Amino acid sequence: MKRLFASGMALAFAVLVVATFARTPAAQTDPRVLEACEPGKQAIDARALPRTIDQNRCPVAGRVIEDGMAGAAVPPPGEGVHVELLTERGAQEFGVRRLEDGAIELDHVGSESAGTGAGPPAFTTKGVGECGDAGFDENGWRVEGTHVYRINWRTTPRDVPRRAAISAIRQASGNVADTLNGCRLGDRVPAGVAYKGYTARHAGVGGGACETDDGLSVVSFGALSNPGNLAAACVHTRAKAGYDVVTSSDVKLSKVGHHWTTNPNSRSCRGRYDIEGVMTHERGHTFGLGHVVEDYHPNLTMGPVINGPCQSSERSLGRGDVLGLDGKYP
Ligand SMILES: [Zn+2]
């Protein structure tokens, strides 16, 4: 039955390819389908693709592009999706953006983590406190108006009180929208965030791949493909001149392989990750920040390495985190 289904899918893709060629004579410059995109391969390996792809060379409807452990269902033309997979040791980002003509642009392909990513800055800020470090990496989207989200709080791990977990997630969302910082920098971000209560839905993140945008923003606990994965965040966007606009943003906090807490600074904390701190980092992505290089910016919230369990340093933004947000809303 499974094989029958697979060959049916292959046939469907073959028909799609033929139909696509028949419809668009303009794509005749190089009509060959890229090997990585051949029908029958449900998941397409991003590392085998060029950064910009003509859709006629890679029939993508209904398929997922994977970049290592991260991946994303290919969005429709004019939309984009960005995934971050946060592990205990670093993070991997991956973005798929589709232009109005259907062309596909890939971003952040390859393995990034602690020491790599956006490239070293002109000077090192290691040893500088979070208020002395002005580094940030801009991702090309922003929240317009208010980011509305729900929490599936029934998924909260048994050893964390639900009320405390909800409170930590809400606080984290406000930390970014209100640019909470210890550097006396005012809040210049007009975009807001609003919690609208419980949902029975789960964050639209499979093992580490973003599902199609359903327009709803959900935070839930669950499982990710690898027990070392702490969290995954998906940001869905719609193309707009200047900055793309966030249409939804899902976050899944993994409760497989490690434990969470809302009291990371308590003496009894052992190996538990701070819900508010990790969630603040993920909300940084929702609001359009990318990663700075951890080795050079260890004190910023948007470094890709959470500074370990039983600490809360990611809760408050550093100078660079705030400047990155401010820059979007001149
Ligand atoms: Zn991140």
UniProtKB/TrEMBL annotation:
Domain of life the protein comes from: Bacteria
Signal peptide: 1-19
UniProt keyword list: Signal
Spans through the membrane: none
Molecular function terms, GO-annotated: metallopeptidase activity
Gene3D superfamilies recorded: Collagenase (Catalytic Domain)
Protein name according to UniProt: Matrixin family metalloprotease
Organism whose genome encodes this protein: Rubrobacter tropicus
Source organism phylogeny: Bacteria, Bacillati, Actinomycetota, Rubrobacteria, Rubrobacterales
